[in-house]
Amino acid sequence: MSDSHEAASPRKARVLVADDDPDIRVLVGIAVRKSGLELVGTAVDGTEAWELVRELKPDLLVTDVSMPGLSGLELCSLVRDDDELSGTRVVMLSAAADEAAHIAGRDAGAVDYLIKPFSPRELAERLVELTQSSTARL
Amino acid sequence: MTLTTVVNRLATPNPSPLLKQAPTTVLFGIAVVLVAANPGSLTSFPSIVAATVAIVLATVLATVLTAMSPLAKFALLVPAIDLVAIGFLRFGTGEALSSFSALIILPIIWFAAEEGREHIWFAFIGTAIVLIFPSVAGLSDSSALSVLLRAAFSAAVFTIAAAVINELSRQAKLRLSSVRRLAEERKSALESNELRTNQLAESEASLRQAQRMFRGLWGAVTEQAVIGTDLTGMIDAWNPGAALMLRIGADQVEDKRHVDEFHLADELEDRARELNYPAGATVLNPGFSALVEEARLGSAEVREWTYRRADGTELPVELSVTPRLDDDGETVGYLFVAHDRTKAHEVAKLKDDFVGLISHELRTPLSSILGYLELMRDDDDDELTETQLQYLGVAERNANRLLVLIGDLLFTAQVESGKFNLEQHVQSMSPIVSAAVDSARPAAVRAGVTLVVEIIDGGMVRGDSVRLGQACDNLISNAIKFTPAGGTVTVSLHGEAHQIIVTVSDTGMGIPESEIDQLFSRFFRASTATRNAVPGVGLGLTITKAIVTAHGGEMGVGSEEGVGTKFSMTLPIEQPARVFSADLAQ
Questions:
Q1: Residue B6 neighbours by CB distance under 10 Å
Q2: Going from the N-terminus, what domains does chain B have, and what CATH number goes with each?
């Protein structure tokens, strides 16, 4: 994996999307494709998302906060605490607009936190920015 | 009428002139009859006639005076005429030898019995005239000296008798008036005694009624625990509400247990620490001191505590603690009134959960609506027509309106539950106001309202830029909504010595004066708003005021119906504009 990361050619960053709402999953998927990234999978709840994250080891996990099974926050903590997943960064989408929810997301290790409703255009831009900074850092 | 009756009547305090005259008239009649029966005693017939005329006159006068009591002051004329009559009778029946001289005593008694020493002199003068006048007038043949001597002597005797009678009468009257006064006093004492007895009965009745009322009230309060203690916290009053709430009867606690035994020791300890261990704290009972500290200092305190029931279970209560005072205003104990907050806590939690759920459940579909609308707008492969873009705009605008409403509801709920946090930074108000004005421009253009901006950078405030922006947005969008096309909305910002003032004034429909006080109440809508079908739910001003208040500021409003409205928000200044520097602006 690390070899492919270091490849000079612009390898498309791999993105996994987790949300229990099918329409949002599709919407986030469209934003991912518009940003020129690769959508490697979608999960309908936290448990499936965790399985897919471990299996696919994506560069970015875009997850809803409130989901059946594992919540987005729990998922984020698991990713952060798993050494094998140090290359996976988490972006949270939440319907909770308050400051406390935002802080909880940051504390759990999310690199970005977007409030629903979000603009797909803005999400795409943020994802591009994140992958670029990630590439630059790597 | 018997003699005794007459005497009794004469002895009454105020016998009538006729009654006083009666003995004289009767005895005079007897004298005349005796003279007629013994003509030898008659010395001058004209005198007897004159005497009779006089006595008749006196009797008639006495009758008239008796009938007309207002003329009573002339009553002494009667004995005066009697004296003249007796003078003539005496003269006509042998003068000094007359058998009827003794009659003179009757008018003299009349005079003498009148109040006042001067009447003694009347009696003396009358007697002297009757006895001396015939001799002096030359009517008598008797030797002047012997007549004068006898007359003078008799007059003196009669005068002394008159003086004695006058004095006796005076004393009798005094005694009578004293007896009367005593009788009056006794009567008034009896009356006042009766009055007091009645008053006492009334106050006893009202006391019994008050006691009944108190017992009724005391027993009826079953939803609140009312507990009374002495200064040490020993319970001496325990109402049925306390028995229900704490599940233990009054007989088991009164004079047996202290009120702080029903509190959590930790809470009392925390409170004592908070109060820095109040001065009144005792080693024996520091928890109780913490509980009553504010009441001990004279004020009533209401705060939440946890009660521990007799069975060990706990319940949250709102407890009001007040001092019990005696007649001199000294604190002699405390009163604790508690009501159960369990339900209120459950409701608050339900509400929080509900608000969270609603927020989530409404925002998620809105994410799809707004997200897909944006995708349609941004679709480069399939460009939309002008009309389609217009329709899309309407859909987006309304979805956003819904989003703002959800945000407002959520925010109101947060304000109410006290869970409303501000992310405070020192910053200038001008960019916040400018941004609010810019975002309001499209709406102003659509409404045909001119937006005038007058911004003078007034200095820095400490605050949450998002919330302050929301407050400005609310005021400006309100002003635009309430101003008919062609009107003007003016937004101004300026600083004063200690405050920054943002005002938003419009030339709109105004607010009736009677509704100004309710403007900031939740869900309140002015009648001008409902009449003119201005959209809204009545949360904007509530939220604006909550934001401004949370920043230590104040909201002001002035309005005239049909002329316009002016809202102002005044925020405390953190730093005047002069010292505004680059690093603070960041």
A1: 15
A2: 12-186 (no CATH), 221-340 (3.30.450.20), 349-417 (1.10.287), 425-585 (3.30.565.10)
